[in-house]
Design brief:
3-stranded antiparallel sheet; alpha+beta; 22% helix
């Protein structure tokens, strides 16, 4: 049962003694770490995933180079030809050999033939800052 925070706070004011029922309602109004949260209970998550899926679908077939094993690392050598477009899945870091672009967590770095750019891909999860850690370690 969801109980408003102000109501719960009023049960624990100085000099008050919450009843057993109030104490139980306090904890029943919050989620336990062992409880799974359904995706449709998170406001906007399905729309967010759909938007990112559409962006990724648009990039499919655009000449991704997977010779580096799937996700590029800042230390990987990147080969591009001036005038030709290319994109790469990229882990976090500063890509000195791609004009110094920075990827905060996970994203796509792209070269349009003359300029590098980054598309950050937000991935909700349980990692630091609420994101999944996709850092690759050797």
């Amino acid at each position: 049962m969801k109980v408003p925070l102000e109501t719960i706070f009023s049960w624990f004011e100085k000099g008050d003694m919450p009843t057993e029922n109030q104490f139980q309602q306090t904890f029943s109004s919050f989620r336990h770490l062992d409880e799974n949260i359904r995706m449709d209970e998170i406001t906007g998550l399905n729309d967010y995933i759909k938007q990112n899926r559409e962006q990724i679908e648009l990039l499919k077939g655009s000449g991704a180079d997977f010779s580096f094993g799937g996700i590029l690392r800042p230390t990987d050598h990147i080969t591009v030809k001036p005038g030709s477009a290319k994109w790469f899945w990229a882990g976090s870091g500063v890509y000195a050999n791609a004009s110094g672009v920075t990827v905060e967590n996970f994203g796509i770095i792209s070269f349009d033939g003359s300029v590098w750019s980054v598309l950050e891909i937000g991935m909700p999860g349980g990692g630091e800052g609420g994101f999944v850690d996709l850092t690759q370690e050797d």
